[in-house]
Structure formats: structure tokens, C-alpha cells
Task: structure prediction
Amino acid sequence: MADIRNCRILEVNLAKQIVRHWGTSGSCRGRPPSSFDNPNGDTPLADGGLLITEIGGSRVVRLGPTGKVVFDIHVPVRYPSDAQLDAKGNVLVVDYSSPGAILKVSPTGRVLWHYGPSTGPGRLDHPSLAIMLPDGTIALNDDFRSRVIVIDPRTNRIVWQYGTTDRSGRSAGRLFLPDGLTSSPSARS
Result:
């Protein structure tokens, strides 16, 4: 778990014991793996490593399974949130701002794709997580616009939406600050 205010990452087992940690409590400098600057995301990776998103310095850090830094890149956003890796090893990160944005960035820090309209129905307001779907589209929760949307990066258009834009709620068809999502394989009959 990302312990944002203590500037560290903790791995906790089911017995609620800390089994590994990265960073030093109270040392809020971006010098991974010994210190992190306000980490707000820590995605476990298939190889046993972690992808860590740091608010301070707008950085994304990939640690290998032993804790060694694989890459440490600056992402050009105001407030990076919950970076994810795509199948090719590129970083998908959102800008938790208004207007917000989504970027795909290479492991060297080169921006490969950007979506961030400043007005209109496509404008994002504090998106906090985006994931790549198997068909190449990107699902994300757009927290303050009360919706989950899917964007086709080939056309930069919203191709699916759940929730009523700018109308939060807790009834069918409405969302109240959607702050996470995951994908699961389709059930086959």
C-alpha cells in the first residue's frame, strides 16, 4: 500500500504484518527505492516488482522484484495518479486535475499519446485511474464528472460510458465519485 503522507510503500500480509517496505517514513524525497515523494499509487507487477506513482516531482518509478529501480521517469502532468503498465511496458497515467488528462509514456519518458480536452463532453475532471483494455481502448474513472468511460485512442473519442455526466448519485445509472476500476476476462459460455 502507498502510505502517501509517510512517503513509503508497505507490503502487508493477511496477518496485518509488514513483510516488506520501500522508502523511509518522514523522508519525502524522490530518491527511490530509499525515499519517495508522496507516493499515491503502487501497482504490483507480474514480475514481482512495483509501479509507483509519486505526486512530488510528477514521477513514475518501476521497481524490479528485488527493489532495484528499472526506470524513474518524469511525466508531464500536474498530479499523477495510479500509473499502470500496458502490455508493451509503456506507462498509462492520468492527471488528477481539472481539466484532467490521460497519457501513455514510454519507459524513457517520451509521451506516446495524450488525451485531455479542455472543454466539452470529453473534458475530464479529476480522473484517478485508467487501464488499457485488451482491444486497445482505455477505461477510466472520471471522478468529479461521476462516470466511468472508455476512450478509443485511435479516434480520441468516448466509445462507452456508465454514469450520467456531472450528475452524481447512488441509484442505477449513477455514480458517486467513482474512484477505481478493474477489468476481468469475459465469461465464455
